[in-house]
Amino acid sequence: MPLRKRKPSPDNTSSVSHDAGDPAEASNDGGYNAGIAVFSYIIGGIIVWSLIGWGLDNLWGTRWIVLLGALLGAAGGFYLSHMHGLTKQRTSAGESSADRGPSKDGNSNAK
User: Fold this and answer.
1) Is 96 a member of any domain?
2) Do 18 and 1 contact (CB within 8 A), yes or no?
3) What is the DSSP letter of 109?
4) What pTM, to 2 d.p., does this model score?
5) Bridge partners of 18?
6) When you count CB atoms within 10 A of the terminal residue's CB, does the N or C end of the chain come out lower?
7) Is residue 80 included in any domain, yes or no?
8) Is residue 52 part of a domain?
């Protein structure tokens, strides 16, 4: 990417930034990172809780707790990603409110 100089800051030092080029490219980085974080939470939860279930299965002589642990880990991963705000639908900069669907307050002008 080409480099460009910014205006000098108040303390008379100039900084160099990367030219983003396409504004849509800058807004899409967060979606990819959020997707990787959601994937990590879910897979990590499944692995950790499956191992805990496997250990309890071996300790107690059962065979079903590992499955319960996997389901608990997946649910916990979804919960964590939701609580961290990673599952919200993001809108692009050029999208109007009409493109997102009906209003949330139920007031529509359709007759």
Assistant:
1) no
2) yes
3) -
4) 0.56
5) 3
6) C
7) yes
8) yes
